[in-house]
């Protein structure tokens, strides 16, 4: 077995083979077609952002951040009507290259995800989401543990904090870093795999730590106002994304003044 694919050899974030992440394999497995759980997540996040902005473009231009964007575009697409700039923050060199290619002109499979967003107030004001993403998004390599403080006016972080190491301390540190990067009052959405045991991408195994609704709430609550947490149950065995998790968790709220 490749040492990098052995779950016991990659415990902390710095020890995992992020630059060897197979972005195409991950996107193909997870997002080739819209799954019911992602459909539900998109609806929750879409309605949260639309309600925050009352379905209208904000008077003051907003900057957004997608922390640990990976090989997933729908968190950035969910922010598109509200942002003049979106920073897609990513550590993996492989994911950075994938994101840059998709921002230049994303693949047709993402149209299905945009169709769900179009059912929310304000999204129809974006006539050409490909052109809008190309104009707004910048892919920035970097370490999420070193995000600047109070930099962005809205944010997303999907399947990142619990999926970067086996350490609960690093999970909390990642959530804290995300929250602290947002300006007070900023709307946010974050998603987590519940009780993840780690995951295979291509030839490599990547670490995760098992988190629950309680862990998510306890970590985000000190930074949040009007937060709502939704657990999305694991679908039937044939429809599960992969082995080694028990559901998904979505947290939406506003950054508090702390």
TrEMBL record:
GO BP term, example: methylation
GO MF terms, alphabetically ordered: methyltransferase activity
Gene3D superfamilies: Vaccinia Virus protein VP39
UniProt keyword annotations, A-Z: Methyltransferase, S-adenosyl-L-methionine, Transferase
Protein name as catalogued: Methyltransferase
Pfam families given in the database record: NNMT_PNMT_TEMT
């Amino acid at each position: 077995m490749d040492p990098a694919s052995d779950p016991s050899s990659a415990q902390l974030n710095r020890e995992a083979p992020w630059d060897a992440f197979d972005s195409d394999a991950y996107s193909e497995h997870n997002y080739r077609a819209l799954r019911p759980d992602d459909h539900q997540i998109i609806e929750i996040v879409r309605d949260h952002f639309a309600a925050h902005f009352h379905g209208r473009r904000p008077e003051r231009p907003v900057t957004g951040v997608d922390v640990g964007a990976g090989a997933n575009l729908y968190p950035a697409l969910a922010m598109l009507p509200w942002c003049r700039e979106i920073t897609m923050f990513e550590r993996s060199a492989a994911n950075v290259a994938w994101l840059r290619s998709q921002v230049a002109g994303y693949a047709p499979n993402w149209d299905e995800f945009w169709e769900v967003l179009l059912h929310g107030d304000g999204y129809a004001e974006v006539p050409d989401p490909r052109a809008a993403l190309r104009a707004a998004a910048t892919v920035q390599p970097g370490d999420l543990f070193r995000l600047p403080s109070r930099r962005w006016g809205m944010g997303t972080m999907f399947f990142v904090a619990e999926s970067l190491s086996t350490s609960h301390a690093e999970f909390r540190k990642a959530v804290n870093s995300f929250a602290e990067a947002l300006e007070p009052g900023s709307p946010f959405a974050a998603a987590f795999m519940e009780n993840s045991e780690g995951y295979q991408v291509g030839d490599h195994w990547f670490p995760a730590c098992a988190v629950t609704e309680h862990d998510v709430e306890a970590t985000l609550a000190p930074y949040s106002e009007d937060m709502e947490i939704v657990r999305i149950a694991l679908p039937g065995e044939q429809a599960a994304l992969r082995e080694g998790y028990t559901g998904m968790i979505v947290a939406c709220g506003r950054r508090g003044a702390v």
